[in-house]
Design goal:
The protein is 42% helix and 18% strand. The chain is built from eleven helices and eleven strands. The strands form three sheets. It has a six-stranded parallel beta sheet. The longest helix has 19 residues. About 2% of the residues have low confidence.
């Protein structure tokens, strides 16, 4: 049996680390069978070597997040525990500055790799299930680049492919018909910018949110271009989109290959491009998984349930 001591500091930090009514501590104890106690601003861990190392690593990472003003909740604690106990290497990333003193923080190892890929490559493809932050982190990084004057404009793009619905039967003019498809991009953007600032940026054409079809014939220089729901592009559409990239521009393409709304005989431009572009310099591919889902804790279980298929009756 070995022992370890983690110095936390004042009582307030200890409460934040252990959680309200020790909820975070209970999560750790339920997974790591070490004896854990806390007093006088310190956490004490006793047990076999592996359990003590795991518990210490979990507390150290949680403390590091608090030091960077990242709030903790049960989902974050679960992700840290799972990563540490699985032996996955811990990476760190600088926060993404989006509004005044507010920052967006990648919350999983996969998300950290994604943000680092965006910061270091001109063309990034990211695939993964719903809730992994594919669009949100791309938009946050774009806003950060705009604020730092690394680019002159942001272009957010989405294909208007019907997911079991028909555009023709939706009410209103063309803009009203396509707005539901662009809404997720606008929602992400509103989290990064004040409403008035966002509206002004869109009026001045500094930020565009457009359907994929509107990209034809354009060349975009010094722009951060994001293509969302890319699994619903055709091969021709993907080629058209990628060739819009001009001097000083950056492109991020995201999609979920398990949620394609194309007809059965139509090949996805996302899947095709991942094969064609893998050996191109400046290209990076990031794959996120269920462990990177940061929505409600049930979303991970829902995604896994659909991946595994229906359970057979006994």
């Amino acid at each position: 049996m070995i022992e370890a001591t983690i110095s936390v500091g004042d009582a307030e930090n200890l409460v934040l680390l252990l959680g309200v009514q020790d909820q975070h501590l209970k999560q750790i104890r339920s997974t790591i069978p070490a004896k854990i106690s806390a007093r006088n601003g310190n956490i004490f861990v006793q047990g076999n070597e592996e359990d003590v190392l795991h518990a210490t690593a979990v507390f150290e990472e949680l403390r590091s997040r608090l030091d960077r003003n990242i709030s903790l909740d049960s989902d974050v604690v679960s992700q840290v525990i799972r990563r540490v106990t699985s032996g996955e290497q811990v990476l760190k990333s600088e926060p993404i500055g989006v509004r005044g003193g507010r920052s967006v923080h990648p919350r999983t190892q996969g998300q950290i790799k994604y943000v680092e890929a965006i910061r270091n490559h001109a063309l990034v493809f990211c695939t993964g299930p719903a809730g992994t932050g594919k669009t949100y982190l791309a938009v946050a990084t774009a806003v950060e680049a705009l604020r730092a004057q690394q680019i002159r404009k942001i272009v957010l793009v989405r294909p208007a492919v019907e997911a079991g619905e028909s555009l023709g039967y939706l009410p209103g003019d063309l803009q009203a018909k396509i707005n539901p498809y662009l809404r997720p991009l606008l929602d992400a953007l509103q989290d990064m910018m004040d409403y008035d600032q966002m509206r002004q940026s869109m009026e001045e054409d500094v930020i565009e949110v457009v359907p994929l079809a509107y990209m034809r014939g354009r060349t975009l220089n010094e722009a951060f271009i994001i293509l969302d729901e890319a699994q619903n592009t055709t091969v021709a559409q993907m080629k058209m989109f990628l060739t819009r990239m001009g001097e000083g521009s950056q492109v991020v393409v995201s999609g979920d290959t398990s949620q394609m709304d194309l007809s059965a005989h139509t090949k996805s431009g996302l899947i095709d491009a991942l094969s064609r572009l893998r050996n191109i310099a400046g290209f990076s591919k990031v794959t996120l998984g269920t462990s990177d889902i940061v929505r409600h804790r049930l979303v991970q279980d829902i995604v896994r349930a659909y991946e595994e298929g229906p359970k057979k009756k006994r």
